[in-house]
Structures are given as C-alpha cells and as structure tokens.
Amino acid sequence: MHKPVLREWENAESIVIFIHGFMGSPHQFSDLLKSAYGFGCSVRTILLPGHGGAGKDFVRNGLEDWEGCLQDELDTFTPTYPKIILVGHSIGGLLALNASLQAKNHICGVFLLSSPLKLNISLNSLFIRLRMRCYPRNHPIKKTYLQATSLSSFALGLRWLKPLLSVRRLIHKTAHNLSFVSVPVLAIHSRRDETTSYKSAKMLYDGLCNNANKRCITLEKSWHAYYTPEEQEIVRDALLEFIGNCLDDNTVQQDI
Asked: Would you say 117 and 123 are in contact if contact means Cβ atoms under 8 Å apart?
C-alpha cells in the first residue's frame, strides 16, 4: 500500500507529482491521483526516504534525503514533461515550494494541502489526538490516519531528533524562500487542523508577497489528513481547476 505509483498517458505533456508529508504515505493521494489522471495528466506518487518501513529506517533520514529524493524524481521526468505540477501534503508542500525555485525542474504550479509554516501546539490539539486514540479502528477518521501512516513500527529516544529537526529546518527554509516563489500556488488549510496551525495560511499568503498568482482556500470541518466527503469534493474540484489554469499559463519561470 505504501508504494510509489506511476500512471502515464502516451504523449502527455504534463505530469502531476504527489508528495506526502512527515510519516505519510502515497496512499493518501489515491482519490486525487485518479482525478488528475482522468483529467489527462500523467501522475506520480513518491515515497520519501525512510518511509514505508520500520521506524529505525525512518530516523536515519532527514531533510537532505527528502529533498534529494524529490529532485531525483524531477530529474527523471523533466526530459519527458515540459510542465510539472507538484501536489504536497504537509511538509511535502514545503518541499514542493523549494523545488519550484529552480527553472530546470519545469514546475508550473504548486498545490498545497495543510502545509505548515507554524505547527499547532496547543491543549486543544493534544485533546483531539487523545480523543482519536479512543476511536474504534473502523471509525472513518482513525481509519484514514492509520492508512496515512507509512511506518510499520516506531523507533524511540533521541534518534527522532534528526527527522524532527529536519522539519524545523524545512519550515524556516521555506519561510525564507517564499518571496522568491514565482509559480502559481494554491494553499488549502482547515481551521480544525490538529497539526498545522491555521495561521500558516496567512503566513503563506503574506510570504508569497511577490507572487501575483496565489490563492488560499479555507476548509471548516476537515483535519490534517482527514477530509470530510463534502470537503474532499472541494479539494478535488480545486485541484482540477488549478491544473487546468497551470497548463494554460505560459509564464516563464526564472531561477533565483
């Protein structure tokens, strides 16, 4: 289940690459992947280093490994696809924003889901997490989170410092680079996100101060990785509209 997926259309000029977040899984994008593929784009979900296996493997990897993995994917597809759209969940979106700074990557748009410039560290967030642990395994929210977690076991202790500090470094790096992002960006955030602070939406929008093609959409009922059926439709429709607009846009990107 936690494996990369590649589905290509013959002679397609565009590909949508999906990037999961911290401890996440390519499985999270199954519905959006089908929609993008049905739209006529080739699609790819990637598995970041350290994910999809045991915690002991996860804690050996960090920011450089995740960035290198994404760049390897882009190096693979840029010779074939003149237009690449990145869809990132959580820190996957931050990786996408930084990758968009290089014109050689052929990125023509970045679609963000719950990407953090500020984490939700609050008593309410803790309460939500504790409450979810009490849900039965077949509860739709808990089931979604179990499927979205790609680690089969968890390592303990100080070994977690490397990936955790990598998240912190990535947040600071992205905040610094936001003003240089020139490709279209659409960011979706939920007010009830228990992991990403909703303030991230404004921070992203304000940080993209030199980007005329930026937009934020607010969801009212969804969580960090769980979307209600109604808001799943909002996300899907927004993605398809975003893809269409990006493929119609002939803006030339410049390296910083």
From this structure: no
